[in-house]
Write the structure tokens for this entry.
Amino acid sequence: MASLKEVKIRINSVSSTRKITSAMKLVASSKLHKAQSTIESMRPYQQRLNAILSHFVKGLECDFNSSLTEIREKKKVIIVCISSNSSLCGAFNSNIIKSTVQTIDYLQQSKIEYEVVSIGAKIADKITRLKIKNTTNQSKLLDNTSYSDVASLANSLITRFLNKEVDNVVLIYNHFKSTATQIVTKEDFLPLEMSFDNDKDNNLSRLLSDYIVEPSKREILDSLLPKVLCLRLYTAILDSLAAEHAARVVAMQTATDNADQLLHELTLMYNKTRQAAITAELLDIVGATFQ
């Protein structure tokens, strides 16, 4: 059995750790509130923009075609993976790393060239350890996320796709569903997939059934499609940030609960050890009186 001094040292250590995890939970909760508000404000805008684009393309008299929607044989792929810059957020980063490594393994087995654009220090460190040559570190985008910086990255990816330097751009990130649930999402960023399943929104369908187009349909689409892609990447980064803070809140809450349980067990151990020491002293005193 541990001595009273050792148990007391452990109690003090666990108490200090609990204070840290509790404080980190409060900080993460504050950041989560802001990030959740931002992504919940952004999602309806993106969904409505996608719906407008889909109905506009569906209403064109001629067949729609664009270089950004061209499906080509995959000879070179860019993987854009989003993690976090810091740790202590549970399985948030490990899930992204696992999905990214699986994608890289598949491309290697298929003998397809690839590049990795890492947004987040944790995934960047993992890519460095894997000794992958063609990599780009864009972790600075998470420090102070702005639309202009994200749009610059998105436009560079669009330019390379239009120039046929790459045939496919894959986006891997954590989708924020709720505080307790973050879903690893893997989707094609390029080529742009046009979906026409927005007819469930009858009000939107009635409002967007006819258009007066100026200067021309082609010029509007050439201007609108890159904006949709820039917004998609920006929304994915905001989604990942909200998921990161949610994962950290859950992780710190779990750590705090574990610390509380451990403190309870250590307190019982301390009391038992102290009681045993007192009992031993009493027995020594009683034994001495009969000698």
Observations:
- DSSP finds six helices and five strands in the chain.
- The first strand starts at residue 76 and ends at 82.
